[in-house]
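Need a sequence for this fold. Nothing fancy.
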């Protein structure tokens, strides 16, 4: 709210400045805890960033409530975002 007041903008105008990107979320069931800080996972994340040409974002985390690893990718091009998410999912499944 302070941003809106400070910049004398309506909420509607401020929201038009936000660019929304396609986002893919894939849940991978797991019975065991997965080390998401391993070198293998870090390398896979770097490869996914290459797939998205450095214009995307990746998040891999364990669910706090279910036996799942969550893989999320987002970026400007849906095809690249989907390809990166599928790549990461396969790498995580190999680790499991």
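Here you go.
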């Amino acid at each position: 709210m302070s941003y809106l007041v400070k910049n004398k903008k309506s909420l509607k105008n401020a929201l038009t400045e936000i660019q929304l990107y396609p986002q893919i979320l894939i849940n991978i069931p797991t019975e065991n805890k997965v080390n998401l800080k391993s070198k293998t996972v870090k390398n896979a994340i770097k490869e996914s960033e290459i797939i998205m040409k450095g214009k995307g974002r990746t998040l891999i985390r364990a669910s706090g409530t279910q036996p799942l690893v969550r893989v999320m990718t987002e970026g400007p091009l849906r095809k690249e975002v989907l390809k990166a998410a599928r790549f990461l999912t396969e790498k995580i499944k190999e680790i499991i």
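For context: The beta strands are 23-29, 57-62, 68-74.
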